[in-house]
Amino acid sequence: MLEKIENIWKALVLNRDKDMTKLNWAMVGGGEGSQIGPAHRLGAQADGLFKFTAGALDHRPEEGRKYAQSLGVDIERAYGNWQEMLENEIKREDRIDLVTVATPNDTHFQITKEFLSAGFNVLCEKPMTMSVEEGEEIVNIAQKSGKICAVNYAYSAYPMVRQARAMVRSGEIGKVRLVVTNFSHGHHSNQSDADNPRVRWRYDPTIAGVSGQFADCGIHALHMASFICDDEVQSLSADFASVIASRELEDDAMVNFRMSKGTVGRLWTSSIAIGRQHGFDFQIFGEIGGLRWHSEQPNQLIYTPLEGRTQVLEKGEKGLHEDANRLSRAAIAHPEGFPLAVANIYCDLADTIKGQERDGLPRAADGLRSIAAVHAAVASAKNKGEWVDARPPMFR
Ligand code: NAD
Fold first, then answer.
1. Sequence ranges of the domains in the chain
2. Confidence of residue 5 (pLDDT cuts 50, 70, 90)
3. pLDDT band at 2 (very low <50, low <70, confident <90, very high)
4. Which of 125, 130, 203 to mutate to test the pocket of ligand 1 (most atoms within 8 A of CB)?
């Protein structure tokens, strides 16, 4: 029994038998009280692969410096802004190996571009850029520099999402006919939130870009559809609504899409769906089977073979694909949550930085495909749902 318990907890730390030289990790954004900052700090440090070495955590320089120090960053590497970080880190022998960009959307492009061009690896939050042209520039810089630009589509790193993709890849549900995905929550339903600074920027085009909810949550769902189907979104038709009328950008969207292998796609994303909490799920229907997954029960994948009985596949059970087992930490029935999915992204980043390229790590090309789809959806919604090409020009 004791041995079993020890194994469970040893297993929590992924890659523990590997080279444990810590990589130096820095963060821009993710200051005190931010939504995504803590998930990155937990994720990056969960497996002992990265040391939190430097940070420019807040748009207010003094608050950022103080908060970084309170989290253990040395005083000379607790920076007031990212420009100062770049200028100083580039001169250091022990410079950072990876910088995470977790600021609001309008700053992603410039920060990512400057760090990549200066020879740093970057993990950028989504959406990677505001425009398709910027996205193409980042893909080109990453290619030329040979540095990694990853994008934090962390939901794709849940073990049972990997199981779903592996089942699709190995033909267990046959040719995929239809994928249905939703990312709809109710956390921006309150009209008075129009003045809440944490909510307001998401619907302000100068900070969020051309799209609100679709660029914020919908692109996770769209990336998920491509990821599981191993396919690309080719064209789409969108209907956008600002249900809270004072919002300039949409808080609800319905997007129909087609993938390059012929799969039909349906996507609903909303921030005014009171009662839906996280609200991210997918269903995928093939010729000989179907799969269903909900982010609120991430350890279970529901599988129904054609004319067979519905089965619950549990993370940690025997007989799962290696890609699911590899990213699974706790033994069967022990829940794993979002920060560990983020940690899986950091593990794959550490391996890739050290030369072992990992399949499935979302890269700049995925970030570019997403922003191209965002612009396509905006154009379609403005034109009564006209079908438009969703691919970035450089991938047509
Ligand atoms: P937030 O408003 O809660 O926090 C933003 C943080 O960035 C704050 O600490 C702010 O002070 C800091 N900041 C702003 N400008 C800065 C600058 N120029 N330099 C340094 N720090 C700066 O926002 P959030 O919800 O944490 O979102 C941040 C990003 O993460 C967004 O792009 C969002 O789309 C993305 N996000 C991704 C996920 C995911 O699942 N991948 C989830 C939530 C948010």
1. 2-154, 156-328+364-389
2. very low
3. very low
4. 125
For 81-85, the CB contacts below 8 A with 24+ separation are 81/56, 82/28, 82/56, 82/111, 82/114, 82/115, 83/114, 84/56, 85/26, 85/28, 85/54, 85/55, 85/56
For residue 392, pLDDT beyond 60: yes
DSSP element (H, E) containing 177: strand 176-184
218 close to ligand 1 (CB < 6 Angstrom):
no
CATH dotted code for 156-328+364-389: 3.30.360.10
pLDDT at 279 over 70: yes
CB of 109 closer than 6 angstroms to any ligand 1 atom: no
Across 356-383, average pLDDT: 97
Pairwise pLDDT comparison (198 vs 374), residue with the higher score: 374
pLDDT, position 197: 80
Residue of 32, 35, 124, 222 to mutate, ligand 1, most atoms within 8 A of C-beta: 35
Q: Which atom of ligand 1 is nearest to the CA of 111?
A: 18
349/344 Cα distance (integer angstroms): 8
Distance separating the N- and C-terminal Cα atoms of the chain: 57
Q: By alpha-carbon position, which residue is closest to atom 8 of ligand 1?
A: 31
In ligand 1, the atom with minimum distance to the C-alpha of 32 is 9
Q: Give the residue among 280, 277, 261 at the shortest CA–CA distance from 180.
A: 280
Write the burial class of residue 105 (CB in 10 Å: 0-12 exposed, 13-18 middle, 19+ buried). buried
Are the CB atoms for 167 and 321 separated by under 8 Å?
A: yes
Predicted confidence band at 193 (pLDDT cuts at 50, 70, 90)? Answer: confident
2-154 has which fold? Rossmann fold (3.40.50)
Q: Which ligand 1 atom sits closest to the C-alpha of 153?
A: 41
Ligand 1 centroid–CA 204 distance in Å is: 14
State if residue 104 touches ligand 1 by the CB under 6 angstroms criterion.
yes
pLDDT for 14 equals: 57
Model confidence at 96: pLDDT above 90: yes
Residue whose Cα lies nearest atom 44 of ligand 1: it is 36
